[in-house]
Design brief:
The structure holds two protein chains of two kinds. Chain A is built from twelve helices and twelve strands. In chain A, the strands form two sheets. Chain A has an eight-stranded mixed sheet, sandwiched between helices. The longest helix of chain A has 18 residues. Chain A starts with a strand and ends with a helix. In chain B, a hairpin with a 5-residue loop joins strand 12 and strand 13. In chain B, about 30% of the residues lie in helices and about 25% in strands. In chain B, helix 4 crosses helix 5 and helix 5 packs parallel to helix 6. Chain B has a domain of about 70 residues. Chain B has an eight-stranded mixed sheet, sandwiched between helices. In chain B, strands 2-1-4-5 form a four-stranded antiparallel sheet. Chain B contains eleven helices and 15 strands. Classes of the chains: A alpha/beta, B alpha/beta. At the A-B interface, helix 8, helix 9, strand 10, helix 10 and helix 11 of A face helix 5, helix 6, helix 7, helix 8 and helix 9 of B.
Chain lengths: ~350, ~375
């Protein structure tokens, strides 16, 4: 069952020039996706593609001045009627946030208060949303930290964020996020600041949470390897729009959008034969989005033709594919007229 | 022929305490006895997690950090014993590329000035015109337009800045370039461009690289020989293909199993070795094998008392583990709690519309 349904989300930064409203900068323009209960959905893209802004908009954490948010984000909370997160009054949103919706940030050091002990920060959530106080709150906090894999939790509760290692801080943050068993957890690059062995531990912890509690997870990352390991469905973002959406197997087996294809071709892989050159995507992402003038990826694309600039390409079902493989491209990869275009040889030839 | 040879290099940083009078209360053993050889024209990859000492080792080669003991032989000269001025002159042949290209360029210095500075310091180039010609040539090699000369670092994208960093090293015609995390600050698509550039430059100029990185896939891609560091020491060293095909040290195996691979089928079926806990403090490293506190294959004897030496197990594959042979042939078993596990998917493969979840089973 659909838990969160984001429809045509757009975020525009209008700047701080007060009354003079310029056209502003579009960070996200018309992103739609759904997250089902117990699903792990991935938002993938490089810096500047709008993935973090999407998550902040959903949590209502963008500043209210100088930002225009459009679209709808229907969230089925435990109450009777689904709510639109984007138009919810701040007080109602505060009740949901932390209890039914929670977020984990990339940098655990800057999202923890440096002058407050870990214990106080964890019990704060418990007091606000579950009404626990005193000894009961402390005991529950210790239990949460322990479940998050922090050894000796009672001692850690008295410590400050700087006394914990990076992995430990991220565990504390996850413990706080899942304190009220939220229905949806948004993780914004939760492992980017961590070493690989610690990253594996944190991903394992997130996987356990999803399996045990049925929490839905919206995973925001730039790492395609992380996506392959944990996500059920993947949405690839480029310049503020979803350019490809598919189940992870479909996406990794045959990426259809030239950008997704290029991203996969530019990652050095442990399991690939050595000595081959990588196939990078040319150029770099542009600061100003240019979707109105056609495909924003066209300047970096090898398959670009004049047709690409006629209009903004629509997100349509990939011809010949099953299971909701959507792509926003006039000339999708692996679709050169033959039905068997998804064979590996064909993909290599077009790379 | 070996261009660079490290012999038991140690870098210890004193830990000082005290308000009025500093006293040394201990040492951080950042690099603790590393010996390795880099062949001319090849790439040596140093890989390890943060805090393992790989960056300190790279800086120690250039003497940007003082060496506590040991020898650094570069083309036959011991850099560790060179006096200041001789070392400064030797640095023309040894250059470095840093992780953060914006942080390593002066924001108020334009590109021409940044690139000329090194040449002037080493007395290279024939006057101003000669230097400018040389700079233009190098800019073209790294794929930057000649118009870049009069611009400032903030006007470039991350990938272009890293190209400037590479150009700055190249203008001095070095023999060895130490690349400290050359691509970790860059986006994936740009990362591949810079890696390809480094390879092309090596092919055309015959450069020798020492590439320091935490990303195993990057290191494997670019290196001919790889050394894995843990807590100040090398734990395993082998040719790139050998190391990735047959990792012998438990830490290398754990590290490799932790790297996510962009392939769902592989991700579901590969063996994962999850390490418990964090890196111990290099100020008080554990006795015996540095890795024994987190090792899934830890044995009751030797591991916590005797530090294993890096020993050759054939074909230049060196491992620092008492039980490497036993682990490889299966006679030494991992402790059950920490044993490698496999994540298996639920058949049949699902589609985007109907999500299912992985179940965890013990391998």
């Amino acid at each position: 069952m659909t838990l969160l349904s984001v429809e045509e989300l757009s975020v525009t930064f209008t700047g701080r020039d007060g009354g003079r409203r310029g056209p502003g900068t579009d960070a996200v323009c018309g992103v739609s996706f759904t997250v089902a209960e117990g699903e792990v959905a991935g938002l993938v893209g490089e810096s500047g593609c709008g993935k973090s802004v999407t998550s902040l908009a959903l949590m209502g954490l963008l500043p209210r001045r100088g930002v225009r948010v459009g679209g709808r984000a229907v969230f089925r909370h435990s109450g009777p009627d689904p709510v639109d997160l984007l138009s919810l009054p701040p007080a109602a949103l505060r009740d949901l946030r932390g209890r039914q919706l929670a977020m984990i940030f990339q940098d655990p050091l800057s999202s923890l208060n440096p002058v407050v002990p870990i214990g106080v920060q964890v019990t704060e959530v418990l007091t606000r949303h579950r009404g626990l106080r005193g000894r009961a709150a402390r005991a529950e906090a210790a239990h949460l930290l322990e479940r998050g894999g922090i050894p000796d939790p009672t001692r850690r509760l008295k410590e400050y964020p700087h006394q914990l290692s990076g992995g430990m801080r991220q565990r504390a943050l996850i413990a706080m996020a899942v304190a009220c068993a939220p229905r949806l957890l948004i993780a914004d690059e939760p492992t980017t600041a961590l070493d690989v062995t610690i990253q594996a531990q944190i991903l394992e912890l997130l996987r356990e949470l999803v399996d045990d509690q049925g929490t839905a997870l919206l995973m925001i990352t730039h790492d395609l390897g992380v996506v392959a390991g944990i996500c059920d469905s993947v949405h690839v973002l480029y310049a503020g729009k979803v350019v490809e959406a598919a189940g992870r197997r479909a996406l990794f087996a045959a990426p259809a959008h030239p950008y997704a294809h290029g991203l996969l071709g530019s990652v050095p892989r442990l399991d690939a034969p050595r000595g081959e050159r990588l196939h990078p995507v040319r150029g770099s992402i542009n600061d100003r989005l240019s979707w109105p003038d056609g495909c924003a990826f066209a300047p970096r694309c090898d398959r670009y033709t004049l047709e690409c600039l006629d209009a903004t390409p629509e997100l349509t079902a990939l011809p010949g594919a099953t299971g909701g493989h959507l792509v926003r491209c006039v000339h999708p990869v692996g679709n050169e007229g033959s039905a068997a275009a998804d064979t590996p040889t064909e993909r290599e030839a077009s790379a | 022929m070996s261009l660079l040879e490290l012999d038991d290099v140690k870098v210890h940083f004193p830990v000082r305490r005290g308000l009025l009078f500093d006293r040394v209360v201990g040492y951080v053993h950042a690099v603790d006895g590393v010996s390795l050889t880099v062949e001319a024209g090849r790439t040596y990859g140093l890989v390890g997690e943060s805090g393992c000492g790989k960056t300190t080792l790279g800086r120690a080669v250039l003497r940007l950090t003082d060496i506590t003991s040991g020898r650094v032989l570069f083309d036959g000269t011991d850099l560790a014993a060179l006096p200041g001025e001789a070392m400064r002159r030797a640095r023309r042949r040894l250059q470095m590329i840093f992780q953060d290209p914006l942080g390593s360029l002066d924001p108020r210095q334009n590109i021409e000035s940044a690139l000329t500075e090194g040449m002037a310091a080493h007395g290279l180039g024939d006057g101003r015109a000669g230097r400018r010609a040389r700079i233009r040539d190098v800019l073209e090699r790294v794929g930057l337009p000649a118009g870049a000369l009069s611009r400032y670092p903030h006007e470039f994208s991350g990938g272009q800045r890293q190209r400037i960093g590479i150009a700055r090293a190249l203008v001095l015609e070095p023999d060895l370039i130490i690349c400290d995390e050359p691509v970790s600050a860059l986006d994936v698509s740009v990362q591949a461009q810079v890696l390809n550039l480094l390879e092309e430059l090596q092919d055309s100029l015959g450069l020798t690289y020492v590439v320091i990185a935490h990303d195993l896939a990057v290191v494997r891609h670019i290196s001919d020989r790889v050394g894995v560091m843990y807590l100040g020491g090398l734990v395993e060293e082998a040719d790139s293909d050998t190391l990735y095909a047959e990792p012998r040290h438990p830490y290398t195996r754990a590290l490799m199993s932790a790297v996510p691979v962009p392939d769902p089928d592989l991700e579901d079926n590969r063996e994962r070795i999850l390490l418990r806990g964090d890196l111990p403090s290099p100020a008080s490293p554990p006795a015996g094998c540095r890795f024994h506190t987190r090792c899934p294959w830890r044995q009751p004897e030797r591991c916590d008392t005797e530090r294993p030496e890096l020993t050759d197990i054939g074909g230049g594959h060196r491992v620092a583990c008492h039980y490497a042979a036993g682990i490889a042939d299966g006679t030494v078993r991992p402790t059950t709690e920490l044993a490698p596990r496999v994540l298996r998917d639920v058949p049949p493969p699902r589609e985007a519309a109907e999500p299912a979840r992985e179940t965890m089973t013990d391998g």
